[in-house]
Design goal:
alpha+beta, 15 helices, binds guanosine-5'-diphosphate
Length: about 600
């Protein structure tokens, strides 16, 4: 960690004035810098998080990190002062680490539950939570998705988390996502335990892995540091009891407690619609006790808990702190990461939900420059191209992941990604309606397209593309954006002829003969006519003759005649040289 790094917290948006102050710049110089980037900003203009980040990046300001101040989510765990009556609660643990280092295997072995086979593309698609018992005590595990594309979800995951178990493969060492996990854990103020995995493997080197981790600021206890590191084999199950012991020990040191005689509260960790059930929402209770029949509000959604199941799917009458449950009864889908609270009755629930919705709307309205606008401004009108998409996913988590991943595609500033709309559930008539006429692609992730909607889309020329594997969706999006790029003109030199005789030279057609000095000439090639150092025009080769016979080409050393056409009214002369080349339009890549 860089001690010099300065953190600027942004709740919703920040004014140009505030940003300048935080950066230690004068307002005029910031506005001036923005102006150089083509952005006309006023002192009181509000910038959203992405825009402010982009500006800092564009201006090349180093040693500053922006952090989202998420008032409801981030502080939920520590928000409430605990009373004397607070009781111990199970720790909430997230398992994070680089892809393939063994997170899924670890959770599988721990839970003795096979989940690997269910995953499309080998990625855990949705955050969910499990509990297991060790030494007669409960530990709650968040099953956080494992691919970098899911950074957003993992970040939220870390905020719910007391302890982050960072899995590092002993034969691979610290990798980018390991570093990311360390950062997330630190920013979420969670305790870190390192599981050094795959110790059964040849090439496993625990000491080297520990040294590697030390380089990234994690010092093992054995080496005088304060981080517990447990060498394990997730596959064989070696040392997993020790890992669980360490989790409980850390929990004890942290004295993780919660009040239970308060209205229930917690966080939404997953939500989706199910036919016949309506909204199905996974909650993690952080305080109080949630019971069936109680009224709850989460963001702009509210409802009465109709059914409540534990992670195994068994009905549960009440849920105590650190317990993950699945409930039905919300009238709308709450957002992933929203805080939920129990309220007395439906009337209060509805009112609170409306207030929350208003707050969100106000915040959105106050950020009057969005990053999309900014990108548009940065790219001058004629070279900026917009890729419009609508994203539909089976659950909010997957929509967030797809959107975040799409935003991560590096378009080199040439393409602006415009997310027209997002939503949970199958592709609808309204989606097609929104997409029509605007060249908008509808991406579906783990959703289907009803036949009538597919027909409607076909009729309106709207592309609907559904995927179950995020990589494939991203590949398609990238390819579609590449299609928007202007093709590159590539010219390849082919050969050169010295003109020795001109048989006819008119405004648009020329017949001339000469000797090939190098390379070759063939029908269809283009040529630059050079007189001395000067280019006097361009010609196209219509036919090639050798000894009065049409031939496909002439090569170095050969003599022959050419029929050329031109738009440049060239009067060809003996001793001109023609440099032949081909010109192709080549699709560009991102
Ligand atoms: P994730 O991407 O971090 O969830 O990694 P996985 O759990 O999917 O593991 C990636 C690969 O490493 C799989 O082939 C696992 O079987 C293998 N693996 C995981 N843990 C161990 C271990 O302790 N020892 C060995 N030999 N292989 C392991």
């Amino acid at each position: 960690m860089d001690d010099q790094e300065k953190v600027i917290q942004i709740a919703g948006s920040i004014t140009v004035d505030e940003l300048a102050n935080s950066l230690g710049l004068s307002v005029t110089s910031l506005i001036g810098e923005l102006f150089k980037q083509g952005i006309v900003a006023t002192i009181n203009q509000r910038l959203d998080f992405d825009t402010a980040s982009l500006i800092i990046e564009e201006l090349g300001i180093e040693g500053v990190r922006l952090e989202k101040k998420n008032t409801s989510t981030q502080t939920a765990r520590n928000r409430r002062e605990l009373s004397e009556k607070a009781v111990l609660r199970p720790p909430v643990v997230a398992v994070m680490g680089h892809v393939d280092h063994g997170k899924t295997t670890l959770l599988d072995t721990l839970l003795n539950k096979k989940t690997v086979d269910d995953e499309a593309g080998g990625i855990t698609q949705h955050i969910s939570a499990y509990q297991l018992e060790h030494d007669g005590r409960l530990i709650t595990f968040l099953d956080t998705p494992g691919h970098e594309a899911f950074a957003a979800i993992r970040q939220h995951g870390a905020m719910l988390t007391d302890i982050v178990v960072i899995v590092v493969a002993a034969d691979d060492g610290v990798k980018p996502q390991t570093v990311e996990a360390i950062k997330f854990a630190q920013s979420a103020n969670a305790k870190i335990i390192v599981a050094i995995n795959k110790i059964d493997r040849e090439g496993a080197d625990v000491a080297r892995t520990m040294a590697d981790l030390a380089q990234h600021g994690l010092q093992a206890e054995e080496w005088g540091g304060d981080i517990t590191m447990v060498p394990i084999s997730a596959r064989r199950g070696d040392n997993l009891d020790k890992l669980l012991d360490m989790i409980l020990l850390t929990a004890d040191l942290e004295e993780l407690k919660a009040d239970i005689d308060i209205p229930a509260e917690g966080l939404v960790i997953e939500s989706h619609m199910e036919t016949g059930k309506g909204s199905v929402v996974n909650l993690l209770v952080t305080g109080g006790e949630l019971k069936v029949g109680e009224f709850v509000v989460a963001g702009s959604a509210y409802g009465k808990v109709r059914t409540m199941l534990d992670f195994k799917g068994s009905p549960k009458g009440k849920a105590t702190p650190s317990t993950p449950v699945t409930v039905t009864g919300f009238k709308d889908l709450p957002n992933f990461g929203d805080q939920f609270v129990e309220v007395e009755n439906e009337k209060i629930a509805r009112k609170q939900a409306l207030l929350n919705a208003q707050e969100v709307a106000d915040e959105a309205a106050s950020a009057n420059v969005t990053s999309t606008d900014l990108l548009r401004m940065m790219n001058t009108a004629d070279n900026s191209k917009v890729f419009n998409v609508i994203v539909k996913g089976d659950v909010l988590g997957s929509v967030t992941s797809v959107v975040d991943s799409l935003k991560m595609i590096d378009t080199k500033g040439e393409i602006t990604l415009n997310i027209v709309a997002t939503g949970v559930g199958d592709v609808t008539e309204n989606d097609v309606y929104m997409a029509a006429g605007d060249n908008t692609v509808i991406y579906g992730f783990n959703v289907s397209v009803p036949t009538n909607i597919a027909k409607m889309a076909e009729r309106d020329g709207v592309a609907i593309r559904c995927y179950r594997v995020i990589y494939e969706l991203l590949e398609n999006a990238k390819a579609s954006m590449e299609d928007l790029l202007d093709a590159e003109v590539v010219e390849t030199e082919m050969g050169e002829m010295k003109v020795k005789g001109v048989f006819r030279t008119e405004r648009t057609s020329i017949i001339a003969g000469g000797e090939m000095l190098r390379g070759k000439v063939a029908v269809g090639m283009l040529g630059r006519v050079m007189r001395g150092k000067e280019q006097i025009g361009e010609v196209k080769v219509d036919s090639v003759q050798k000894e009065k016979m049409d031939v496909p080409e002439l090569v170095e050393g050969e003599l022959g005649g050419l029929a050329l056409s031109t738009e440049h009214k060239i009067v060809m002369e003996v001793d001109d040289r023609i440099k032949f080349f081909t010109r192709e339009l080549v699709k560009r890549k991102l």
